[in-house]
Amino acid sequence: MGAFSGGLSFRQYHVQGDLPANWPEKYQVEIKRLAHKPIDPANEEDRSVGWCNAEFPLDVQLDEQTWHLNEYIVLGMRIDTLAVPGPLLRLHTEAECRKLMAEQKRDSLNRYEKAEVKERVRLAMRAKMMPSIKSIDMVWNWTDGTVRFFASSEKANLEFMELFEDTFGVSLVPDVPYTVALNGRGVTLTEAQKAALENVEPTPFVDADTALAALQG
């Protein structure tokens, strides 16, 4: 979703920090290190996050020509989820319990036996399931430090910031009017204006009594 197709909802960031010398070679190593890795159904993890080719999420080889496009670094953040739906798990667990009771000629199973059956069924179902796959595009103009991440959800953006900073060794600052003005992008402020901006406080648009009454319902 994002840069190549779908909606154009995105959050914009600015990179703080300098690119290292020979950054394409260094970033190639780090991108490979944090490329998406599939979920192992035998393990307990139900979510996996990593880089992929923005144009084809199943491509996680990520040679430089797939992500370094002129003045842009373009990648997808791939999120795989593998979870057995609760209602389906309950249904198949009940079927397995009935089968076991019939084989053993019993009227019931104790809670420990039911828990064991449930876990066995869950693992068997996980082994047969395909994970859901979602890819969210990231476009970084490395010449001006602008980064666009094509998702608006808070959780996805927090995961993206962590993955980005771990990969590239630089910090991301969200683009909001305050940070844009303070960093001097698109507007030039004097040192006195910057100092004043740092001390700006939010302006209340309702008086304290009205706000308190609204909170109390």
Q: H/E element string?
A: EHEHEEHHEEHEHHH
Radius of gyration: 25 Å
Helix content: 40-55%
Report the biggest beta sheet as strand number plus sense, adding barrel if it closes: 7 strands, antiparallel
Tell me the overall shape: flat
Distance between the amino and carboxyl termini? 40 Å
Strand-residue proportion: 15-25%
Number of helices: 8
Q: Specify the oligomeric state.
A: single chain
Count all strands and give the number.
Answer: 7
- What is the residue-mean pLDDT, rounded to a whole number? 87
Number of domains: 3
**Structural class assignment:** alpha+beta
**Low-pLDDT residue intervals, each spanning 5 or more residues:** none
Question: How would you describe the overall organization of this protein?
Answer:
- With 217 residues, this protein is α+β, with helices and mostly antiparallel strands.
- The chain folds into three domains: 11-82 and 129-173, no CATH class; 86-128; 176-217, no CATH class.
- It contains eight helices and seven strands.
- The protein starts with 10 loop residues before the first strand and ends with a helix.
Could you write a compact summary of the structure shown?
With 217 residues, this protein is of the alpha+beta class. It has eight helices and seven strands.
Question: Which key phrases capture this entry?
Answer:
217 residues, alpha+beta, 3 domains, seven-stranded antiparallel β-sheet, 8 helices, 7 strands, 41% helix, flat
